[in-house]
Amino acid sequence: MDIIVEEDLNKNSYDYKNTKDIDNLNGEEFKLGINFEMSKVAELLTSENMGEYLDKARKTVAKNLGKNPLYYVENAQFGQEGIGYTGDALGLNPTEIKGKYAESGYGDPTKKVANDEYIEVKESKISFNDLLNS
User: Fold this and answer.
1) Which of residues 98 and 79 earns the better pLDDT score?
2) Among candidates 63, 62, 87, which has minimal Cα distance to 74?
């Protein structure tokens, strides 16, 4: 009896898991994605083809967010393709402190690694003049 009642309750409920429906996607992420996709074709836009490019951008954003809900946070957070948040950055994995005075934070680190290398940052390739002119 309980199984039949549960099936009846779920029969007419809204399908929130359908990622092809734009209403089921995060609105802020969708807005960020539309803004990014339209900025890629900004020089091609005219009043005649605005609707066509906007429809293409909506389909692209819906497809990308359907696969990964944080697509534009990870790949285009600041309006630049390839720049975004990641969990693989150095310093995000702290080392555990052990030793006699571990509770104060001044114990012996578990691993001593000398890292004197420079890490190339993608943001450094953008000149200040390019930012002002865009």
Assistant:
1) 79
2) 87
114 pLDDT more than 70: no
What are the Cα distances from residue 71, in Å, to 13, 83, 127?
A: 28, 11, 25
The tokens for 39 are 């900025």
Q: CA angle 131-86-90, nearest 5°?
A: 100
Strands (E), the chain: 97-98, 108-109
User: Hey, what are 29's tokens?
Assistant: 């992420």
- pLDDT per position as a tens digit, 27-75: 889 999 999 999 999 888 888 999 999 999 999 999 999 998 889 888 8
Give the pLDDT mean for 17-22.
79
Contacts of 38 (CB under 8 A, 6+ apart): 45, 53, 54, 57
C-alpha span between 72 and 31 (Å, rounded): 10
Altogether, the residues listed in the chain come to a count of 134
Q: Which two tokens stand for residue 98?
A: 């052990």
Q: What is the pTM of this model?
A: 0.57
CA distance 99 to 32: 47
According to DSSP, the residues that pair with 108 across neighbouring strands are 98
